[in-house]
Design goal:
This protein is of the alpha/beta class. The chain has 8 helices and 5 strands.
Length: 204
């Protein structure tokens, strides 16, 4: 089984992925943030490094998916290949931070990869307001995220909402996270687990 957790920067994807992996004994796969050689440069000079960053993520996530196939294990994944292609790259292009030529090249590569990719059995979308995202981003204190603007987060949120509403690749569970605290409130986590159980039981 392949479960994926999607959501904007600071929505709580990594935290929930860890907790669900522990509860269900799924193998967790996380976004490659620490080893990513482009993130610092990107946030300091988005126009120069947007294409490089998106290609890095595309490559990284495609390799992840190929590994999933080989393991045969139940997997939970922090962020999907679809978010890069349907949210982050188009947003950079629309903001004038990725050229038409680079965006066309990127899209062509993604479309080729997508023909070889199986969508997750269940996609969990963490919906969050901008104030909550900002609060979470400040709390975790990653240096390279200090320059993220409200405008950038808002644009991403709009694209996430549009993508979630049109998502038809498989089962989708939308979780509003503004008033949830997975870490400190077991009831909040329990509510999410109950919803996931309902969806998973419907898969078989």
């Amino acid at each position: 089984m392949h479960i994926a957790v999607a959501g904007n920067i600071g929505a709580g994807k990594t935290t929930l992925t860890r907790l669900l992996a522990k509860h269900y004994r799924w193998e967790a796969h996380f976004e490659d943030v620490v080893a990513n050689p482009y993130l610092d440069d990107f946030y300091n000079q988005m126009e120069r490094w947007s294409f490089n960053l998106q290609i890095y993520f595309l490559n990284s996530r495609y390799r992840q998916i190929l590994k999933f196939r080989k393991t045969g294990k139940d997997i939970i994944q922090d962020r999907t290949i679809y978010e890069d292609a349907h949210i982050f790259a188009p947003n950079l292009h629309a903001m004038g931070l990725m050229t038409n030529r680079d965006f066309s090249n990127y899209t062509s590569l993604f479309e080729l990869m997508e023909t070889l990719v199986q969508p997750p059995d269940l996609l969990i979308y963490l919906r969050s307001s901008i104030p909550n995202l900002v609060n979470q981003i400040h709390k975790r204190g990653r240096d390279y995220e200090n320059s993220i603007s409200i405008d950038y987060l808002s644009r991403l949120n709009e694209r996430y909402e549009a993508w979630a509403q049109s998502y038809e690749k498989g089962k989708l569970l939308v979780v509003d996270v503004d008033n949830l605290n997975f870490v400190d409130n077991p009831e909040h986590l329990g509510d999410v687990i109950n919803k996931i159980d309902a969806e998973i039981n419907g898969l078989f």
